[in-house]
TrEMBL record:
Species the sequence originates in: Acinetobacter apis
Gene: leuB
Cited Gene3D superfamilies: Isopropylmalate Dehydrogenase (3.40.718.10)
Cofactor entry: Mg(2+); Mn(2+)
Catalytic activity: (2R,3S)-3-isopropylmalate + NAD(+) = 4-methyl-2-oxopentanoate + CO2 + NADH
Oligomer status and interactors: Homodimer.
UniProt subcellular location: Cytoplasm
Lineage top rank: taxon: Bacteria
Name of the protein described by the UniProt record: 3-isopropylmalate dehydrogenase
Record-linked NCBIfam families: leuB
GO CC terms: cytosol
The family this protein is said to belong to: Belongs to the isocitrate and isopropylmalate dehydrogenases family. LeuB type 1 subfamily.
Length: 360
């Protein structure tokens, strides 16, 4: 049976990077006779403009039917002033939780051609290959109660709740251990167990699962403040990092910068059955939207992750990853990864270059 994809371009640079990724998707679909079909839908600000909601029912129905979702990015200043509960980013949180996309995989891989684009010395980052596994549907981003209340003295107070149950911790840790077995067999679980009870339980639960089922994988634990420091001091010590929603959000952006540009990093958000939403790690970059200068490679590499994790088409995934390497070898660079002596290209040209590389 053919597999169906829902494409949500979103806002800002979303439509531009998705156009480039879609041309790569068409090419790979033909080249490997994958039989994939797809349709488009609305999420975020684009959906608010049409339906008044960032994740309207029509998109929800499309998303539930699809086998995988490819997303650009959502949000932008146009919608910053509207009521918090219907802001574009809420649409993103809603689709993730409705589809139970609890496992967010963010690889931070340094392409050797981009070693100079990293803010760290080449010897510290060359060969870097980290996979951050972030819990995505729990923790403080979803915990209740939350809000801003007025105290008796008239002062306002903001509050959120960080909660994780054992089953939520176990299922994300399992994903991390399983993926580690396919890579360097090392998992570092990041917590703040010295201060937060919720992460004390996190640490205990990960340790128990390791003892029961994954003794063949090396497990270490690290406090989040130390992990943030170690990522810039000696990032190659890590193989798979597993952590909660908030810490994972921050650490994965930090890891992103080790690779030179956030414009290079794809991500996958998976449910328990391999259905997933695939998107670049970056946001909608309103500052460069509509200028044909955004880097589409993170989105194109997200297509590769989709082929690998949702459709088990490893060969096709690798073909895209090789094409990206080849185009970087040719010296083509978007503005964010450009260095003197190389050839600067726009979003569309970069997408076309990947298509050409796949066709040769
Ligand atoms: P951002 O990731 O959009 O941009 C940060 C910086 O990186 C900007 O200077 C931007 O120009 C640059 N950048 C990002 N992607 C790039 C690319 N592909 N090529 C070249 N440069 C790129 O983060 P932000 O500025 O904090 O947020 C902008 C908007 O995006 C906000 O509305 C935010 O809520 C939203 N956002 C959405 C998502 C998502 O959809 N998953 C994630 C993060 C932020």
């Amino acid at each position: 049976m053919s597999k169906h994809i829902l494409i949500l371009a979103g806002d800002g640079i979303g439509p531009e990077i998705i156009r480039a990724a879609e041309s790569v998707l068409s090419t790979i679909n033909q080249k490997f006779s994958l039989g994939l079909t797809w349709e488009h839908g609305l999420l975020g600000g684009a959906a608010i403009d049409v339906h008044g909601q960032p994740y309207p029912d029509v998109t929800s129905a499309q998303a539930k039917q699809a086998d995988a979702i490819l997303l650009g990015a959502v949000g932008g200043p146009k919608w910053d002033g509207i009521e918090r509960s219907i802001r574009p980013e809420r649409g993103l949180l809603k689709i993730r939780s409705e589809l139970n996309l609890f496992a967010n995989l963010r690889p931070a891989i340094l392409y050797p051609q981009l070693a100079d684009a990293s803010s760290l010395k080449p010897e510290i980052v060359s060969g870097l290959d980290i996979l951050i596994v972030r819990e995505l549907t729990g923790g403080i981003y979803f915990g209740q109660p939350r809000g801003i209340r007025e105290l008796e003295n008239g002062e306002k107070q903001g509050y959120n709740t960080d909660v994780y149950s054992e089953s939520e911790i176990r299922r994300i840790a399992k994903v991390a251990f399983e993926l580690a077995k396919l890579r360097g067999s090392k998992v570092c679980s990041v917590d703040k167990a010295n201060v937060l009870e919720v992460t004390e339980l996190w640490k205990q639960t990960v340790t128990e699962l390791h003892q029961n089922d994954y003794q063949d994988v090396a497990l270490s634990h690290m406090y989040v403040d130390n992990a943030a420091m170690q990522l810039v001091r000696a990032p190659k010590q890590f193989d798979v990092i597993v952590t909660g929603n908030l810490f994972g959000d921050i650490l994965s952006d930090e890891a992103a910068m080790l690779t030179g540009s956030i414009g290079m990093l794809p991500s996958a958000s998976l449910d328990e059955h391999g259905k997933g939403m695939y998107e670049p790690c970056h946001g909608s970059a309103p500052d460069i939207a509509g200028q044909n200068i955004a880097n589409p490679l993170a989105t194109i590499l997200s297509v590769a992750m989709m082929l690998r994790y949702s459709f088990k088409e490893e060969q096709a995934a690798v073909a895209i990853e090789h094409a990206v390497g080849h185009v970087l070898d040719l010296g083509l660079r978007t503005a964010d990864i450009y260095a003197e002596g190389l050839t600067q290209v726009g979003t569309e040209e970069m997408g076309q270059a990947i298509v050409n590389a796949l066709n040769t």
